[in-house]
Write a structure and sequence with these properties.
With 112 residues, this protein is an alpha/beta fold. Helix content is 29%, strand content 16%. The protein has a five-stranded mixed sheet. It is globular, with a radius of gyration of 15 Å.
């Protein structure tokens, strides 16, 4: 999968996590992007495109702060398994920025 947001960064091959892309900053911090996280990110930005740059910058700040990060759909059930990494979800990036999209998905109101 191609990630235009990080096309200028070094990609590290990790055969233990073939479905996630591992990037390395010039300052040697590393982060994985799981495909489902990226889907969330692109959907989020399609709703609020004016926040794209802020979200990407916040992700970079979180990587620099934590040194090793996995951006995952669900930290309780990640696709990527890497020792010593912090697992963060999209809301861990957007909530501190005060950027919210209300999740209106819920079960049916109709009983059986």
């Amino acid at each position: 999968m191609e990630y235009k947001e990080w096309q200028n960064l070094k990609i590290i091959e990790d055969k233990n996590n073939p479905f996630s892309t591992l990037f390395e900053l010039d300052t040697k911090e590393r982060f994985y992007i799981e495909p489902a996280f990226y889907t969330q990110l692109t959907n989020f930005v399609s709703i609020l495109p004016m926040h794209h740059d802020k979200i990407i910058e916040k992700m970079k700040q979180l990587v620099i702060q934590n040194k090793k990060v996995v951006f995952t759909l669900d930290y309780e059930s990640p696709l990527t398994h890497a020792d010593g990494y912090v697992y963060l979800e999209i809301t861990d990036v957007t909530d501190p920025l005060g950027i919210y999209v209300e999740d209106k998905s819920r079960g049916s109101d109709y009983g059986d």
